[in-house]
Amino acid sequence: CKERPMELVFVIDSSESVGPENFEIIKDFVTALVDRVTVGRNATRIGLVLYSLEVHLEFNLARYMTKQDVKKAIRNMPYMGEGTYTGTAIRKATQEAFYSARNGVRKVAIVITDGQTDKREPVKLDMAVREAQVANIEMYALGIVNTSDPTQAEFLRELNLIASDPDSEHMFLIDDYNTLP
Length: 181
Fold this sequence. Notes:
Layout: E1 6-13, H1 20-35, E2 45-51, E3 55-59, H2 67-75, H3 86-97, E4 106-113, H4 125-134, E5 137-144, H5 152-162, H6 167-170, E6 171-174
Parallel strand pairs: 1-2, 1-4, 4-5, 5-6
Antiparallel strand pairs: 2-3
Helix pairs in contact: 1-2, 3-4
């Protein structure tokens, strides 16, 4: 069967809690996901938002049209290592990364994070998620959880909020970076 084109945006946590070694594992994982889709002007196009306290649109959907270019850009992403502004990152994905999305093409965001949003964050997570829903973006949440963390329940609540319904199909939890496929 021919795979349907989609607009795919990765929203990647590059905060302090991730750490530089794990950030490399995330890059490998995302690169492997890119390998599984057909990238091209009339196929799947890929964008990427990288965030910590600052939120960077690394590349939008129209920037790279080959798998090689996308993977090279992912490999070159810098580790940021500060706070976790997930709401701001989701808003940037909605407003900027998906800005050039093709009409009638499925829009998918994959949010990869290992911690709850920073309390000081100006953009509230629920607002950002609602904006993404209104923009018809299907959201997947990949949470790297530390079961001994006292803020665990709150983090899971946030992942539930981010993930499109049904959560069972859109929310994935792993407890160790090394178990990333």
